[in-house]
Amino acid sequence: MRQLLLLLLALSLFSCNEENKNPKIDWIHVESGTFTQGKNQYVINSSFDTIKGFTSPNREVKLSSFYISKYEITVKQFKEFCKQTNREMPKRPIKTAYAEKINTDDWVDEHPMLATWEEADAFAIWAGGRLPTEAEWEFAAKGGNKSQGYTYSGSNDAREVGWVGENSDSTFHKVGQLKPNELGIYDMTGNISEWVSDWYNPELDELNSVENPKGPEIGRDSMKISKGVSWFYDAVDAKTNTPLPFGIHMPEVRYQSPILTRNDGFGFRITKD
Fold it and tell me: 16 in a domain, yes or no?
């Protein structure tokens, strides 16, 4: 009897540990493939500015299969991470990207978690995964092998698939509310810009492998890359009220920020092999 009780206790502890390592994540499988990264190198935004060099490097990239989370990691999921790792839940940013005071200090469970790169990386490891590479993120955003060649992640109109300047009411929104892309992934256009694992150092991009690239080994000024851009930017031509054919929310576009950046425009999703 004593041995049976010990066995049951051991199984119980094992079960708890497994729960810690395997939080509930909705995964989307992305089959291996080859795609053109950084296809569009010149981006015209709604102010008619030409943005050069604001994209991933233009090259053919070969990727192995991987899984990516269907949704951006939410506040609720991050709370569970903090609870199980004895971390203190970070305080919500107190100002918007417009430098206006946010009216509430409360987190909303279904909102994307506004995290620093270091917090995003720690969550990914705890969840049994990792942050996606820039190439993986871009391939998944473009629909992987099911890509229909859309300008944005699932549509030629960013407003259909993402919270952007014209439809966001100047803030981010609960995950999974708009149309998904070809792989069934939500919010890879707009809402919040998503951290990836790559350091930002474009001068070293050409040294990177074209097979499962992981980015430069060192970063410029401790900056990491984020993708998808956020609710802050417009996606429509102000004069014609038509979708921008090449806008800042395209999957090619990269944004660079210091790893401790936290504001109402940065979050993340995770991957696993």
Answer: no
